[in-house]
Design goal:
Helices cover 16% and strands 28% of the residues. The protein has 343 residues and is α/β, with parallel strands linked by helices. The chain folds into three domains: 5-97, MurE/MurF, N-terminal domain (Udp-n-acetylmuramoylalanyl-d-glutamate--2,6- Diaminopimelate Ligase, Chain: A, domain 1), CATH 3.40.1390; 104-306, Hexapeptide repeat proteins (UDP N-Acetylglucosamine Acyltransferase, domain 1), CATH 2.160.10.10; 314-343. The strands form six sheets. An eleven-stranded parallel beta sheet has the order 8-11-14-17-20-25-28-31-34-37-39, with no helix packed on it. The longest helix is centred in the first third of the chain and has 16 residues, at 82-97. The N and C termini lie far apart (76 Å).
C-alpha cells in the first residue's frame, strides 16, 4: 500500500472547502462510528448525524448544513454533495493503493492467433480467447475468463476472474464485470409441441454500452432474433437475470436478484429495487423507480415510484381479487361518503 496522504492533498485533488490542518495525515477511508484519527469519514444521511459528535475521524466530509456540527469535533471538508465526494475519493484511493495488472498474456492463457489483443491489455492465467475476438487498449481479462468468438471489449474494460463472454458479445469502454457473470448465453426460448419442448435457437447477440457495471453471477441472455441491448452507464447488481431481447436504457440501476423476462423494455435513468420481477414484453418509461420485491405485470407509461405485492392464488381467483384491489381506494371513499350521510 502507498504511504498516507495529507488532507491538503485530498482537497487539492478533489476540491471542497477544507477547514482544518492541511498537514493532517490520512491512511484510511472509513465509517464514522469506527474511524480513527487517521481516517477520513463522511456524513451524507442525516440519520447518522448522532454519530458525528462522538466520531474519532481525523476529518469528516459534510454538507454545508452540518458544517458547524462537524467543526465542533475537528477537521472537515465541506461540499454540496458528500456522497458524491466520497465516491470520487474511493476511486482515487483505489487507484493509488491497488496494484494494476501487468500488461501481457499469461503463459497459461490460450489466445487464438486470429484474435486481436492490444499490446497493453492484461490476459490472466488460464484465459481462453477465441478467433475474431477484439480486446482493446488497457483491457483486463481475469484468470479463467472466456472470451468467445468475435467478441469485442472496448478500451479500459475489466473482467474479473471467471467471467464468460459467449460468441459475438460486445462491451463498450470502461465496463466492469464481476466474477461468475455470463454474458451472451442462450435465452430461454422453447416452443411447445406434443407435450415436449422444441428449442428456439438464439440467433441474436448481447450488446453493452460504455461505463456499464455488471455484478457477480448475473446473466444477460443473447437475443432470439434481434439483440439484447444494455445502454451506457447501466449498473447491474449481483444475481440479476436479464432475458433475451431485453432493452435497458442509459444510466438505469438494477439491484440484486432482479429477474427481467424476455423482450421487456426499460427506460433510461430508472432505479429497480432488489428482488423485483418484470414480466416479458412490458415497457417501462424513463425515470421510473420500482421498490424492492415489486412484481411488474403491466407496462408503466410515466415516471414515478411504483410498488406492489399480491398474495399467490389460483389464477382465476387472483385476477378477480386484483381487479377489486385496484378499485379499493375508490370503494373506501364511497363508504366514507355513505357513512357521513347516515350520521
Amino acid at each position: 500500500m502507498l504511504a498516507s496522504v495529507t488532507l491538503g492533498e485530498i482537497a487539492a485533488r478533489l476540491g471542497g472547502e477544507l477547514i482544518g490542518e492541511v498537514s493532517t495525515r490520512i491512511d484510511a477511508v472509513g465509517p464514522l462510528d469506527s474511524a480513527t484519527p487517521s481516517t477520513i469519514a463522511f456524513l451524507a444521511n442525516p440519520l447518522y448525524e448522532k454519530q458525528l459528535a462522538g466520531s474519532h475521524a481525523g476529518c469528516v466530509i459534510v454538507a454545508p448544513a452540518f458544517r458547524d456540527a462537524a467543526l465542533a469535533r475537528g477537521a472537515a471538508i465541506v461540499t454540496p454533495d458528500p456522497y458524491l465526494y466520497f465516491a470520487r475519493l474511493t476511486q482515487w484511493w483505489a487507484a493509488r493503493t491497488r496494484p494494476a495488472p501487468a500488461p501481457g498474456v499469461h503463459a497459461s492463457a490460450v489466445v487464438d492467433p486470429a484474435a486481436r489483443v492490444a499490446a497493453d491489455a492484461s490476459i490472466g492465467a488460464f484465459v481462453v480467447v477465441e478467433a475474431g475476438a477484439s480486446i482493446g487498449a488497457g483491457v483486463v481479462v481475469g484468470a479463467h475468463g472466456f472470451v468467445g468468438r468475435d467478441c469485442s471489449l472496448g478500451a479500459g474494460t475489466r473482467l474479473a476472474p471467471r467471467v464468460t463472454l459467449m460468441f459475438e458479445t460486445t462491451l463498450g469502454e470502461r465496463c466492469f464485470v464481476q466474477s461468475g457473470a455470463v454474458l451472451g448465453g442462450d435465452g430461454f426460448g422453447f416452443a411447445p409441441t406434443a407435450g415436449r419442448w422444441e428449442k428456439i435457437e438464439q440467433l441474436g447477440r448481447v450488446r453493452i454500452g460504455d461505463d456499464v457495471e455488471i455484478g457477480a453471477n448475473s446473466c444477460i441472455d443473447r437475443g432470439a432474433a434481434g439483440d439484447t441491448l444494455i445502454g451506457d452507464g447501466v449498473k447491474i447488481d449481483n444475481l440479476v437475470q436479464i432475458g433475451h431481447n431485453v432493452r435497458i436504457g442509459a444510466h438505469t440501476a438494477i439491484a440484486g436478484c432482479v429477474g427481467i423476462a424476455g423482450s421487456a423494455t426499460i427506460g433510461a435513468h430508472c432505479m429497480i429495487g432488489g428482488g423485483v420481477g418484470i414480466n416479458g414484453h412490458v415497457s417501462i418509461a424513463d425515470r421510473v423507480v420500482i421498490t424492492g420485491a415489486t412484481q411488474v405485470t403491466r407496462s408503466i407509461a410515466k415516471a414515478g415510484v411504483y410498488s406492489g405485492l399480491f398474495p399467490f392464488d389460483d389464477n382465476a381467483s387472483w385476477e378477480k381479487n386484483a381487479a377489486t384491489l385496484r378499485n379499493l381506494h375508490a370503494l373506501r371513499e364511497r363508504v366514507r361518503a355513505l357513512e357521513k350521510k347516515q350520521s
